[in-house]
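Bumping with the actual sequence this time:
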Amino acid sequence: MSAKKNLSAAQRRALLAMPAGWLACGFGSGLAPVAQGTFGSLAALLPWLGLRQLPLPIYLLVIVVGFAIGAWACDAASRALGVADHRSLVWDEFIGQWIALLPLLVLPASWWAIAAGFVLFRLFDVWKPWPIRWLDRRVKGGMGVMIDDVVAGAFAAIVLALALYASSTMR
């Protein structure tokens, strides 16, 4: 069993004993036994349904503040677990998913676009094309946990925006 994939009972207690741990594990969504990143991304859709109602500048502020708090929380949780970027730390998926869905705030879209944004984000997060993989390997601490998902979210947002634009011009 890999230390990065599974939590011992002591690690789970340490993680859930602090507010940073609750946030870092996506309010429990990162505690799924498998596919923690996917469960974190799915859980991120629930608050997004409310966040999408915000004016764009406030939405962007939420992402920036969420990133900063997430870097702190993931750093604290990693130290408590004794494992850098444990799979249970999924707050980065929340921020990356919200970035991936950014085009849906400004371009007309239907329910399929939410699903496409989810799939695109997961694709870029797992595939990790350059520079995502480079950042994942070189940036450490809470910033390292967060930054690769921010870039994966940006890549997904670009592809989603292009797909939405293309579909709107084909009508």
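The tokens above came from a reply further down the thread. The mean pLDDT is 93.
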